[in-house]
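Let us work through a complete example step by step.
Step 1: write down the sequence.
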Amino acid sequence: LLENSEESKHGLQLLLDKYFPGMHPSDDSISDDDVKATAVFRIDIESWSGKEYKAEDDFPGAFFYDEQTDRS
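Step 2: predict the structure and record it as tokens.
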């Protein structure tokens, strides 16, 4: 649990940057009251693993839509 207000604000700002990229930080974007009302945790990751996904050509264009396509 982060107890340092500035570190908490930084963590919250990182979330805002990721999920709301159109919002830009300003002097009052995250207030001290916001930090007091929110528990912010830091997780130190010691290792990371996963599988790599490689798209096959089985379904060309499956994930891309032409803007002219009628979707009705």
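Step 3: interpret the result. The chain is about 30% helix and 0% strand.
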